[in-house]
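Teaching note: in complex prediction, the entire set of molecules is handled at once rather than each chain in isolation. The prompt given to students was simply: 'Predict the structure of this complex.' The entities are:
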Amino acid sequence: MQSIIQALTWREATKKFNTEKKLTEEQLDTLLEAARLSPSSFGLQPWNLIVVSDPEVRTKLREVSWNQPQITEASRLFVFAAQMPTPELVDAFVANISATRGTPLESLAGLSQMIKGSLEGKSETERLEWAKKQAYLALGVTLTSAAVLGIDACPMEGFDPAKYDEILGLTERGLHTTVIMAVGFRIAAEAAIASQKVRVPRENLVIEI
Amino acid sequence: MQSIIQALTWREATKKFNTEKKLTEEQLDTLLEAARLSPSSFGLQPWNLIVVSDPEVRTKLREVSWNQPQITEASRLFVFAAQMPTPELVDAFVANISATRGTPLESLAGLSQMIKGSLEGKSETERLEWAKKQAYLALGVTLTSAAVLGIDACPMEGFDPAKYDEILGLTERGLHTTVIMAVGFRIAAEAAIASQKVRVPRENLVIEI
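The expected output is the structure of the full assembly:
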């Protein structure tokens, strides 16, 4: 019962990564699988995860991220990018249900219509904001998984999303950089002097009805 | 390494809860602590978690949630409600840092100004959307924690947020219902016939650069 609390207490928004220590292939694979298993509204998964390893690309990204060292010093940079939920995305989703479960496509027509109708009820801005929220949900699943695995991470909002889209070539893919997470291992010496975690007291956060 | 993947594979958006089986106090406490430990941008935690147990209130909520049975049948209903990030919230946050770490308040003036400046750069709509994203991040942390603990959950968007705010008295607290999660235990017989999880294949979700 307490191991999840220990993991969440251990985790920190890692500022100084050990540049010598890289994720193993198995660790990277596990994190990507955790991200993939993240739930989303309708199950639509309206986002992509860009795993940036290339040092030159990361140098460019750091320049549009307030020069934060995590961008280049972590083992990997994860970029969660929301995808505008189009009717085509819904079609692909429904086709995937049909293929995975062996359900005839015709019997999924009602589901497809329901999802499309829900999306049509939103403005374009609202649709993209909705997709971004699903990306934040996936971020929460992925960073909790990292903590359980003893992998350090730093979720970050301090960057220029439009420049990220440009540098990573996301615009032509219909993707919108939403939130990023540097992944790797903290420098132990730095960890020892890390500041105490600050959280609002339970009674200010939780309302019981 | 594989236990987190097992937990995330085991979890499902539980539709049929066992109405006889309730969370223990320790389980509830652990989930609330996991939520409280969730990271947020700047650490501001601009949301509250409403734990709804009252059967009458839940009956009213079900009526504005497409009559979905999880609302009343789960052991508890968690309501994540975004809080408009005001200068007062920033002041309370900075005071909490000062109290937790013993840092003089004066030396945190720069941080306070930086956060307030960042929030002032957003419209009111953008500020609230930003807070809602932090609530989705907390949802991701909480539902992953539930999965690790073997506790079932159903994250849900299908409800009328304005009616929730009214029924739960959130408007006068400056809170905005964002996303909800029914929490409890699935009916095992239903679980046995649960459909296979559908997720986009890795190669369609992950882009490597």
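Point out the following to students. Chain B has a mean pLDDT of 93. Residues 78 and 195 of chain B are 25 Å apart (CA to CA).
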